[in-house]
Structure formats: structure tokens, C-alpha cells
Write a structure and sequence with these properties.
The chain is mostly beta strands and 106 residues long. Helices cover 0% and strands 14% of the residues.
Length: 106
């Protein structure tokens, strides 16, 4: 199935390679969330309160501006992400293999 809305109460959730999932808006209460290789996920705006969030190889994600409250954030190989300026409070940020991110020092 593709409906994960009933899993919002789970503490740790591993959905790696669940390629048919598109809507993760109900998962904002999960503490440890692995969406690695969920290629059809595009909107992660509801996940700003997740403590540990793995979005590696989520190619459809472009906007991560609402994820500033995440403590550990893995965006490795998220080729669609270009702006991480809103993530300055993220304690551990992995942007390895993100060729389109432009980091500007002010």
C-alpha cells in the first residue's frame, strides 16, 4: 500500500525504498524517520519536528526550508535541493553528493 497515515504515532519508522509512497504529511510526529530512496516523495513540509530524518536519494525533494527544527538531517544525493539556508540550526547536516546546493557565506 501507499497510505502511511496510520503510522504517525510510531517512534521509529524505516520506509527505505518504499517507492510508491508520495504523501508523508501524517509522519510529522515520528522521532526517527528513514525515507531514504523514496523517490516519489516531494513534499516534506510536515516533517520539521522529526528529530532524525534521512532523506538521502529522495530525488523529488526540492524545498527543505521547513526542516530547520530537525536535529540530524541526511540530504545526501538529493539532487533537487538547491537552498539549505534555512537549515542553520540543524546540528548534523549531510549534503554529500548534492551538486546543486550553492552555499553563500555572508
Amino acid at each position: 500500500g501507499t497510505d502511511v497515515s496510520a503510522l504517525g504515532h510510531v517512534t521509529t519508522l524505516n520506509l527505505i525504498y518504499c517507492n510508491n509512497i508520495t504523501d508523508v504529511s501524517a509522519l510529522g510526529g515520528v522521532i526517527n524517520l528513514n525515507l531514504s530512496c523514496c523517490h516519489r516523495v516531494t513534499d516534506v513540509s510536515a516533517l520539521g519536528n522529526v528529530t532524525n530524518l534521512n532523506l538521502s536519494e529522495c530525488y523529488g525533494i526540492t524545498d527543505v526550508s521547513t526542516l530547520g527544527g530537525v536535529t540530524n538531517l541526511n540530504l545526501s544525493c538529493c539532487h533537487g535541493v538547491t537552498d539549505v539556508s534555512a537549515l542553520e540550526n540543524v546540528l548534523n547536516l549531510n549534503i554529500e553528493c548534492c551538486p546543486n546546493i550553492i552555499v553563500l557565506k555572508t
